[in-house]
Amino acid sequence: MAGEVERGEVVACDVDAIDPERVALVMASMIDEATTLGLAEIFRALGDPTRVRILHALAASELCVCDLAAILGMSQSAVSHQLRLLRSLRLVRHRREGRMVYYALDDDHIEKLLAQGLDHVAHG
Questions:
Q1: Is residue 2 part of a domain?
Q2: pTM of the complete model
Q3: Residues facing 95 on adjacent strands
Q4: E strand or H helix at 80, and its extent?
Q5: Domain with 58 in it
Q6: What secondary structure does DSSP assign to 20-65, as a single string?
Q7: What is the CATH number of the domain that holds 87?
Q8: Which of 61, 66, 68, 86 is disulfide-compatible with 92, CB 3.0–4.6 A?
Q9: pLDDT by residue (tens digit) across 13-72?
C-alpha cells in the first residue's frame, strides 16, 4: 500500500521544522551524563546472552555458582567471571552461608527489567 512504512525502516521529516517548546521540554528532562553511562553499562551487560541466562535463572531462585554452572552447562570459572561483572553493576548480590556463596538478583527492579524485556520479545 502506498505511504506504508516497513517495520524497522527509519523515516525522516520532509521539512526541517524544529518545535522549540517541545525541544526545550524534553531537554529539561534529559538525564545527566553519569546516569546515561550507568544505564548504558547495564544494557551492555544485558546484551550478553550468558548474562541474560544467569539473571533469568536467578529470577527463579537464589543459586550458588555450582548450581548456575550446572544449569547453564558452563564451567564454574566462566560463571564466576560473569557474576563478578553483574555484581559490579549491582544486578546481583551474594551472601555466604558457611562455605557456600549464594547469588540472587539485587532487587526487584532487575526482575521487572527482565520481565519487561521478555514481554517485549514475546509481543514482537
A1: no
A2: 0.83
A3: 102
A4: helix 76-88
A5: 20-123
A6: HHHHHHHHHTPPPHHHHHHHHHHHHHHTSHHHHHHHHHHHH--EEH
A7: 1.10.10.10
A8: 86
A9: 888 889 999 999 999 999 999 999 999 999 999 999 999 999 999 999 999 999 999 999
